[in-house]
Amino acid sequence: MDLSLLKRRSEFEWAIEPRGKMRVPGVLFASEPLVRAMDHKVFEQVVNVATLPGIRVASLAMPDAHWGYGFAVGGVAAFDPDEGVVSAGGVGFDISCGVRCLRTRLTREDLEPRKKDLAEALFRAIPAGVGSRGRIRLSGEEMDRMLRGGARWAVEKGWGERGDLERVEEDGQMKEARPEAVSERARARMRDEVGTLGSGNHYLEVQEVAEVHDEPAAEAFGLRAGDVVVSIHCGSRGFGHQIGTEALREMLEAGRRHGIDLPDRELACAPVRSKEGEHYLGAMRSAINVALANRQVLTHLSREAFGSVLPQSDLTLLYDVSHNTCKVETHEVDGRPCEVYVHRKGATRAWGPGHPGLPGRLRPVGQPVLIGGTMGTSSWVLAGTETGMRASFGSACHGAGRAMSRHQALKQWNGKQVVEDLERRGILVRSPSLRGVAEEAPGAYKDVTAVVEATEKAGLARRVAKLLPVVTIKG
Amino acid sequence: MVRRVYSSSMAAAPSDGPPFENFAHDADIGVRGRGATLAEAFANAGRALTAVVADPASVREELSVEIACGSPDPEVLLFDWLNALVFEMATRRVLFGRYEVKVEGTTLVARAFGEPVEVSRHQPAVEVKGATWTGLRVAREGGTWIAECVVDV
């Protein structure tokens, strides 16, 4: 990105002054090298989002922002309930894709002698990859109960423990889901996909806490150096994809009907207070519940696999975050608390200390913010901050982002070689597809640590612990 | 299978390229089909969609599925066609290697030929989530139809 287009507000904050049809400024949070490396399309997309009706304060980009459709991936925007819009492109296809982190009560020393057995047990237990099916088949009524109940439904069906729920955003159940707004095609895509990991960049990883950066927060999160944790990265599977696809089509028509002037059809949107907007919100909230249920079932399967190999393990939730959502939240706008529709696309909610929505033990330190890396590099646990609440509607980065295309990666790496190289470094990878492993090679991604450092220095979240992979199950 | 990777600048593709190909687009990937007719370009865009997941040449013809969609806008028709294929691939757990496509006026009727996914042989890399409006283009250049867009993976 051309830095001359930006006004530097501070070392890690860059503004795009309003021009043309922009209603608010654009703001990028990143280090200078990260901004320079961003595609010019990110600039255009941040500007375009700033032109949408009812946008409040600013159109934002997180340090890992990259070119998406309509909104940049890593884009955050909040809209007024009465004058604003809701956009499927502002949420993304994989609705409520996110990361769940579980503590295990195991140390690396406990794990090491049983590592291989655990990798095999997890690979058998977790349905992963293209064409995989879950254990659960859902009828119409049971599907509706899942769409309304989310992780709470899964726990009630025996796929988890009641105590899990307070460690999930929305206490495990997104309110105001409307199953009647969900098409038959979306239901068909989910009939036997509950409890599946998916493919691409989705994974289940056993990790070691390698570094602790903030002792009090780590203690509150129940993390110590040498501890073993499990991270699950996946979303609402084909269900969310179908809802996203249908909404892109429907909102194109809706935007025209409501006279919304779009600089790019990728920004297709509908007024919050419209039949189409409410329809999408009802379906999108159902998809959030699907993702929460899916990660809950995968948690149960992980507990079974761990129990069969390491019976002394006890998997408890650190937290579950979603990074593709639109949620109604209260934030300070123009000096007073206002209800806004916060779109986070490839951005993690990061509520600061004292937020009433956080469970008691976490409230004094802020929300755990879980940032995924690659199968050969680090992942991170951060904590939300008070400054982030003011600067970014309580939002932070979500991951590393690709450094090269899947095709380039496939040319550069051989899947078998990647698995062998990682095994030499003590990381066991299990995947049904070696082509998939090559496309997801660690070198195909940007440096997540640079993203996390910029997030901290911009004040959006602070570093708590660094996690390194030990076992990776890839789709 | 011909693979040609273009830069993410989204410059117009030359009209004299291979029948189908994928092109790079940041975290996602583009599909492009060419043909002497609009229908042939759409069929080849379907092969490019398969190529995102696995090598279309590795897909046997054991079953076929009929697909129909309609739109007065050829670009929206491509969007609908690719998303119909994504839906059939996902719900039937199949891959398609060949397509017979007819486009008459605003209507597309097609038959897709393929087989159930066999992980060990196909080595499927990634599921396609859906076609997007990004880079969506249907155009005739010289005597060649080009049908292309970015798909989310």
Q: Could you describe the 3D structure shown?
A:
The complex is a heterodimer of chains A (475) and B (153). Chain A is α+β, with helices and mostly antiparallel strands and 475 residues long. Chain A has one domain: tRNA-splicing ligase RtcB, CATH 3.90.1860.10. Chain A contains 15 helices and 19 strands. In chain A, strands 7, 8, 9, 11, 15, 16, 18 and 19 form an 8-stranded mixed β-sheet that branches. Chain A has a 7-stranded mixed β-sheet with strand order 1-2-3-4-5-13-12, sandwiched between helices. In chain A, β15 and β16 (379-384) form a beta hairpin. The longest helix of chain A has 35 residues, at 275-309. Chain A is globular. The two termini of chain A are 33 Å apart. The model of chain A has no long low-confidence stretch (mean pLDDT 95). With 153 residues, chain B is of the alpha+beta class. Chain B has one domain (20-152): Archease, Possible Chaperone, Chain: A, domain 1 (3-Layer(bab) Sandwich), CATH 3.55.10.10. In chain B, 25% of the residues lie in helices and 39% in strands. In chain B, strands 1, 2, 6, 7 and 8 form a 5-stranded antiparallel β-sheet that branches. In chain B, strands 3-5-4 form a 3-stranded antiparallel β-sheet, with helices on one face. In chain B, β1 and β2 form a beta hairpin. Chain B is globular. Chain B starts with 19 loop residues before the first strand and ends with a strand. The model of chain B is unreliable at 1-11 (pLDDT under 50). Chain A binds chain B through residues 39, 66-70, 73, 93-94, 129-131, 133, 185, 188-189, 191, 198-200, 238, 241-242, 244-245, 248-249, 252, 265-266, 268, 401-402, 405-408, 410, 432-436, 438-439, and chain B through 3, 5, 8, 22, 24-27, 29, 53-54, 76, 79-80, 83, 86-87, 90-91, 93, 116-117, 119, 123-127, 129-134, 150, 152-153.
